[in-house]
Amino acid sequence: MRNRPAELLVRLTKILDSRYNRSYTDRMKTAISIPDKVFRSADSLAKRLGISRSELYATAITEFMSKHQGRHVTARLDAVYAGEDSSLSPNLIQLQAKSLAREEW
Predict the structure, then answer these.
(1) Considering only 7-11, 45-49, 54-58, 82-86, which range has the smallest mean pLDDT?
(2) What is the Cα 46 distance to its own chain's centre?
(3) For the chain, which residues make up each domain, given as ranges?
(4) Got the DSSP string for 20-85?
(5) pLDDT for 23
(6) How far, in Å, CA of 50 to CA of 44, rounded?
(7) What is the pTM of this model?
(8) 42 contacts 57 by C-beta, under 8 angstroms
(9) Taking the mean position of all CA atoms in its chain, how far away is CA 83?
(10) Which is deepest, 59, 73, 89, 100, by most CB within 10 Å?
(11) Which residue has the higher pLDDT, 18 or 64?
(12) Which has more confidence, 102 or 49?
């Protein structure tokens, strides 16, 4: 009978730990410092949109990262193709010129 409270404590701890992990750690919390004016504007926008500040910040960061990811891809492609010769052969230039319709000016 003496171990009963200890067993209950272990079971209760497991239950509380599992609830804590499911309800709290599925999202990361962070603290940031932003100018007061930016905070007030963001708070106002979140209220007008009917969303939380957290959702507003998460959306803004997601869009910002997406924009910069595109820049990263472009920079890498530029680096890959920088050493490639992109000039056209004289024969191809001549064929392209012949394929154009003649127009009167």
Answers:
(1) 7-11
(2) 19
(3) 4-83
(4) HHHHHTTS--------HHHHHHHHHHHHHHT--HHHHHHHHHHHHHHHHHHHHHHHHHHHHHTTS-
(5) 46
(6) 10
(7) 0.47
(8) yes
(9) 31
(10) 59
(11) 64
(12) 49
- Read off the tokens for 1: 């009978």
- Per the CB < 8 A criterion, the answer to whether 43 and 53 are in contact is yes
User: Per-residue pLDDT tens for 45-78?
Assistant: 999 999 999 999 999 999 998 888 877 888 888 8
> From CA 8, how far away is CA 6, in angstroms rounded?
5
**What single string gives the DSSP state of each residue in 91-103?**
HHHHHHHHHSPP-
Could you tell me the two tokens for 21?
A: 């992990």
